[in-house]
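pasting for ref
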Amino acid sequence: MGEVNPFIILIAAIFTNNILLANFLGMCPFVAISKQIKSAFGMGVAVTFVMTLTATLNWLVYELVLEPYNLEFLKFLVFIIVIAAAVQFVEMVIEKSSPTLYMNLGVFLPLITVNCAILGVSLLMGNREYSFIQSLAFGIGSGIGWWMAIMAMAGLRHRIQFSNVPKALQDPGITMLIAGVMAMAFQGFAGIVNI
């Protein structure tokens, strides 16, 4: 995919190929953490950082170690190990710099390790044969897209607290309904650019 401009990959990863709303990867923390804007913001920053870091690290590991030594069959295992190490680093930084955010994120912070969106970005960039710069753009764009989606959901859920939502749709029901409408809205961007 050498011909695709990294800026186009970045914009497409944010809007048209949003990892969450177009590929439906990373829905568990999206639904669970989007109850409060502050927690959603912190989780969005953490996911964006980990996604960008692991996309670049996994590209380097794949291109410099796995592919040259014919070890491509180990990519799932190696990618998960790289993701787990990055999450441990982020968890330690958040715990030291913002104990309140660390407590708000709770169990969901370590669960970034098994967030399928982060692994999905690493696998998708490999399948699309992105260069290093393209992989970096894809990682940043996917993280920003996920962050933007969780912030929008947190804002909407905050507003819904003051609305008269039918009992049958409260909490997970209305959240999934809003996520579906958001996904349809993001598909409206599909005509702009698609990778």
